[in-house]
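User: Need the bound-state model for uracil:
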Amino acid sequence: MRKVINDLWNTLEDYRQLKTYGYRCDNREYYIPETAVAHDPRSITLAQVGDNGPDSFEKIANEIMQCKKCRLCSGRKNSVPGTGVLNPFVMVIGEGPGAEEDSQGLPFVGAAGQYLDKWLNAISLDRATNCFIGNIVKCRPPGNRDPQFDEIEQCIVFLKRQIALLKPKAILTVGRIASSIITAQENGIGKLRGKIYNYEGIPVVVTYHPSAVLRDRSYRAAVWEDLKILRKKLDEIT
Ligand code: URA
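Assistant: Bound-state model below.
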């Protein structure tokens, strides 16, 4: 049964890629989305990722830059380990680098990133002094498609090591992919947002992806509510 569903999923995914990009991005076997939650990438705990001896941001970044564990390495100009400060108030987690991020090797530097900076500034946060900005996958998925489950599965350990090392006071996930991976809930943002989750003792606030809000301004009020939830939580715990 699983094979039939996976085959069907693969066929639909082929069709989607052909329709969206005019070509198939790769030759991988796709997975049904449910699998992402069934094989919860959180099954490796922060304590386990910290078991490999002393870690450092440079060590993790070097491993990311040399990483060839999934197909995304073949299309990258630069991998994007993330940027920000140690012990940030907030670690922002997006889904993966886009074209501009791939060119510069930095996260959220395109239009969505500039918009994200405005959100952060509105609640007295910024990437230079009190935040860390990262992504679920560190290399750009071709054609800006969603990262696939096996790519996430290979890459997530880097994010976990970063969380274990940086020890953010809170996490803000932006967009469906980052939010569903970090909360281990499969719902869309509309259902997930509005409450605080817990990621191994770290409070997590979920909101829309800035690109989605740039496309549909009606999400702005919800984002502002979410940012206020985050600010209130930070004021309580810092
Ligand atoms: N979108 C993301 O999710 N991450 C980036 O770094 C840029 C755009």
